[in-house]
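User: Show me an example of a complex going from sequences to structure tokens.

Assistant: Sure. Here are the input components:
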Amino acid sequence: MRLRSLLARLRNSFRRPRDHRDVSAELASHLQLHIDDYLARGLTPSEARRQALLQLGGVEQTKLLVHDQEMLPVAESLLQDLRFGVRILWRNPGFTFAAIIVLALGIGANTALFSIVDAVLLRPLPYPHAEELVTLRESKPNFATGSVSYPNFLDWRKDNHTFASMAALRGGRSVVLTGLGDAEQLNAVLLTAGFFEQLGVRPVLGRTFTLDEERVGAAPVVLLSAGLWKRKFAASPDVVGKSLTLDGKAFTVIGVIPASFDLLGNFRGVDIYQPIGQWDNTALLMRTAGLGISGIGRLKPGVTLEQARADMQRVSANLSAAYPDADKNVSAALIPFRRWNLGSVQTFLFVLFGAVAFVLLIACVNVANLLLARSTFRAREFALRSALGAGRSRILRQMLVESVLIASIGGLAGLLLASFSTRVLLSFLPAALPRAAEIGIDARVFLFALGLSLLAGVAFGVAPALKALRQDPQETLREGGRTGSASRHHLQSVLVAAEICLAMVLLIGAGLMIRTLAALHHVDPGFDSSKVLTFGLSLPPSAKNPSPDSVRATLRDVQKKFESVPGVQSMAYTWGALPLGFDDEWLFWIDGHPKPASKTEMNWTLDYVVGPDYLATMGIPLEEGRFFSAADKEHAPQVAVIDQVFAKKFFPNVDPIGQRLHLNDDDQTTEIIGVVRHINQWGLDSDTNQSLRAQLYVPFMQLDDDNMARAGAGLGVVVRSDRPAQVFDSIRHANSEISSQQLVYGAQTMDELIAQSLANRRFSMILLALFAGLALVLSCIGIYGVVSYLVSQRTREIGIRAALGAQRADVIRMVLWQGAKMTAIGVAAGLLVSLLLTRLLASLLFGVSATDPFTLLGVAVLLAGISLFAAYIPARRASHLDPIIALRYE
Amino acid sequence: MSPKKDVQQGTLALMILKTLESLGPLHGYGIARRIEQTSGDLLSVNYGTLYPALLKLEQEGFIASEWGTSDNNRKARYYKLTRAGRKQLQREASQWAETTAILARFLNEQPS
């Protein structure tokens, strides 16, 4: 059929009847013309009319044939079914409303989660040929995927044969902008040349860095983010060539990066991009330094990851040979860019997606059960229709049309629900989800919801429809649709058991996550996180090339000022590692042991360069010896404090107090004066799995001169206060009184840091609990509905039993037994399925096994109890039936 | 009345188009009469197929119709060929000629 006529017929099918073609008039005119002809030939009027009518044949048949040609018969009868369906649903508002709500919840939850999964995992990365992108890290002792040193990166970029391009980045840097309104802290990213080109990002204005501008010592240039450009320069196009004072140094603006670029969320909130050579960190050119630098490379077309790995292995081996002191046992680690960035969220998103699919299944089963129960009442209607000549397919279609109609309305409501709830769901996830900015309801999500609705409609509609077909119309008409056959009850019971099984799996998943979070909350991080605030401080950049002593003097003044702020109980500067925040490592060897031949053979420790009140501020218990005092300052004898793990690992048989260490390849020694409790640097859950756990504290004022000179540009502060979240405002006020050029920024309580480290798990737990709760409610409705229905079917029987002397308890027991059977089968099946499925959760669990018997049994008992209660309500009602009324029933 | 053959499926459309080409705008009855006459009264047009066929051709855009008045002052729906219909007629006619030619060659083949 040609498209044109198909459209014409489809259009006609939806027209009102009076707009249809006037076939009758045309046939009448035809007849008249025919009669005229016969009259002209000399026939009598009555004979002419008779002959013409004979010739014309069945007028009504012709009309029907024209009608069929005019419209699409399929579409037309579908329309009839639809109208009928709407009428039926309209007449049963209770049923319709219940079914739509149940489906809206199921489809809405699925759509919301799909919009997240789609944006984060399914859609291609927003970079050309993203499959060629590889994240480059350094594999070295203690770190399988540690940060890359800049000298190694330069050699990788120069010596490889398999990469079309390679770039490096270091984010999370903070610089101070002055000379443009109030001094302001900016988030900066350090980059190598070619970074943007590699990702196919073009500046909206100007150009990007050249290789020459990347080098250490090159003239300072900077790229702006579109956000900063709008905020500070009103998006003026002549910003290129202007000068920007960052940390007291003039940078020339060479371009603007589009707002849409955020490196999958990694660069969210970034204000400026600087060439990596502009980093005033003396360690930048050290081959052993771990400074948080990552590499991203683009494979040459056709090169496989394995080939690139082999190539980089060769490059790494050459470097190990050339620089054994730094690069022995160090090699390049290649991870697909996609997996590096999305791998961690993939598991929990897919687990949640699976869970939400279960919810929809339960919703469908529920609606199917409602339809089944109703189909008994409609059995007469269907019998009558089929007795009047309706084909089986027509009846089947009628039922499917109704269920798809319900599903479509439910799906539409679900889509609305999803568009509201997605943002709410995401708010449980503070900034931890990559690509969160791309999440939204779009055509793909809409199609998903639509497809899901149709699928659901067919899924829950088909069982009752087949059921209705299998009935013998004669039987049904004779019985008046009164009695249901036993097999129908059977099907409904199976559906309820399936519901309970699905709910069971979800409840166990949620239970395991709740136990995991509870276990994590009971993990002692080693410090008291509840009253601690951390923030960054940067001194005014006005004094160029500050001497280390002037930095120390200024910091002492600032400390006095901050300590006098009401609400501040104690404070300490920190440099180096911060628990759950960021890590920093030092090399050392123990005095008296032979000096290792190379740096890679030295020992590693986490380093905390902190003020004397650090222990009190963080609430870390001192185990032995003493902590620092104000007297442990510059020029005083160098001292250090270690944690229990350090003590146990390196001084298993001797008292560590009084032992001496060579830190960072220093010929001078540092004396250990105390031992403190170990703190969980790496997070509440994973600390014990890390190989690098030894912790070393040194006094902040004894920081070496090079680093002290740099420290003024940005160091950490920890403050103890009863109101850690509120005290920052007072501190900021006190800070502004010192100098408008001096900044405090990035305030976070330790509790927030801990919460962030658990964000993904908490998100999973909340959603799983939500879905499990939904599943529980739905399956309770299911069991209640089915048992009530069974009771109504057996009213007569119950009445007879009661009349013959059955006690109330007997009736309750009898009805309850029906519910108990379904529950028992459902719970048993649920346990089995859970044992198979919960292992998918394993990577999210902590402190509880995937087959934790306590959770399994607890949930089984809970679910069985609630299900039986749902069955008890109709059972009790049945037991109160008056036998007289029951016998008269129907 | 001598037994007449019903018009074969598929050929009716071609006959309608050809009739409208030869005679210009015409009503359904006229089309039927013309086809019967042209066939030397060997064919009988089944009205149950004529009107659906007309409607189909109109839906496909090959003919157009409007109400008009006949010679003897009767109201009737008149059909006329459209530009697309003219092309379709040429296409169909040449295809038909080809088919009959091929068939003729088959039927005339001498047993060897």
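The lines above are the inputs; the final block is the predicted structure for all two components together. Residues 337-387 of chain A form the longest helix (51 residues).
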